[in-house]
Automatic annotation (TrEMBL):
Belongs to the pantothenate synthetase family. It is an enzyme of class 6 (ligase). It holds the Pfam family Pantoate_ligase. It comes from Candidatus Galacturonatibacter soehngenii. It catalyses: (R)-pantoate + beta-alanine + ATP = (R)-pantothenate + AMP + diphosphate + H(+). Its EC number is 6.3.2.1. ATP binds at residues 30-37, 147-150, 176, 184-187. Gene3D superfamilies: HUPs (3.40.50.620), Pantoate-beta-alanine ligase, C-terminal domain (3.30.1300.10). GO terms for cellular component: cytosol. Catalyzes the condensation of pantoate with beta-alanine in an ATP-dependent reaction via a pantoyl-adenylate intermediate. This is Pantothenate synthetase.
Amino acid sequence: MIIANTIKEVRLQIKAWMKEGKSIGFVPTMGFLHEGHQSLIERAKKENDKVVVSVFVNPTQFGPTEDLESYPRDFEKDTMLCEMTGADLIFHPDAKEMYEKGASTLIHVEGLTNALCGKSRPTHFGGVCLVVSKLFHIVSPDRAYFGEKDAQQLAVIKRMVKDLNFDIEIVGCPIIREVDGLAKSSRNAYLNTQERAAATILNKALTKGKETILAGETNVVKVKNEITEIICKEPLAKIDYVEIVDFDTIAPVKSIKGNILVAVAVFIGKTRLIDNFIIQA
Ligand code: AMP
């Protein structure tokens, strides 16, 4: 497995692979890899000749008071995990390599970024779209793999790829969970023992909401209230949002019909966790 720190190295390798007619799968990450990331790498390996994983804690997607400095990092472990899972190249640039002085271009996806996480993190998706566009130009993949764990991000990237005519297939992959249902996340490392136990409330509440929808409920307010009430019973939990939207447009829906995203963001202590389910109702 190749470890590349510069854009030039990545481009040279990609060109060589392209000359050999190899297809390229790409998995962008912020590192501190776990089974969730691994599932994307495995899927990419199945569907492409070569797999590139980027490990880059992207400063432009963090707000000024967010956890950029403390975000967990373990590049040695990430390297091992990528190698084990069959990645062919890790791109591990520093911030200077990705953002040169004077860089002035921004990318804004209108509409889809106003609600859910975009509401509480107004600069977040601009940073995500900028870094993902740059990485797409550097890696030139045939397919790129994103987790449904970040469902709004997946919807935003799909929209951006359409709007900017990237010739890349975006593949959404299911959420990988701990045995007790908590969605795997690098940020779970912030939780102490009590908080870790409390964090299971997100999936518990969503599971109940899903059962209610599967039983035929189409009333948005009723399902939102049910999920909210369950989360509120957990003293360590503070809700950022409980939302039910159209998965493709992230627009509010009048009733639970079509391709629906039910998403929550909840602070457990100081740690903000997200979870969701997507349902064809
Ligand atoms: P991150 O390193 O958190 O930026 O995540 C990199 C990619 O891994 C994103 O596409 C995430 O949606 C995906 N991902 C993170 N956690 C999970 C999970 N538990 N299951 C599936 N995909 C995940």
